[in-house]
Design goal:
Blueprint (H helix, E strand, L loop, with lengths): L2 H28 L3 H11 L1 H6 L1 H17 L3 H10 L1 H5 L1 H17 L1
Helix pairs in contact: 1-2, 2-4, 4-5, 5-7
């Protein structure tokens, strides 16, 4: 094979791998595994998070919601306290204070 053919072949492999990873990310999100999807994105598509900074925020919030849906209240509280996205976003700081109080009353 010539150098140009190697480059084309390598590019085709990368494109195929990217398509498979995108399918995996999509299926993880649809299965309610947004934390796993976010880890794949961080590892395989870091530029995507730079281009769309809200994506990390949205997937993190989705993970928190998933924890609440399965009634993992203690885990959700710990998660919310430890994730910097929640401690730097004003909206979530106000929600956090109200929700922690409500969740604590339920537990």
């Amino acid at each position: 094979m010539k150098k140009k053919e190697y480059v084309i072949f390598f590019n085709l492999i990368l494109i195929n791998k990217e398509k498979k990873l995108k399918k995996v990310v999509k299926s993880k999100i649809l299965e309610g595994k947004s934390a796993e999807a976010l880890e794949i994105i961080k590892h395989s598509f870091p530029a995507l998070l730079k281009d769309f900074p809200k994506l990390e925020f949205l997937l993190t919030v989705q993970h928190f919601i998933e924890m609440i849906n399965v009634k993992d209240y203690a885990g959700a509280i710990t998660f919310m306290k430890n994730i910097s996205i929640f401690t730097t976003n004003e909206l979530f700081m106000s929600i956090r204070e109200n929700k922690i109080e409500e969740i604590s009353l339920e537990v």
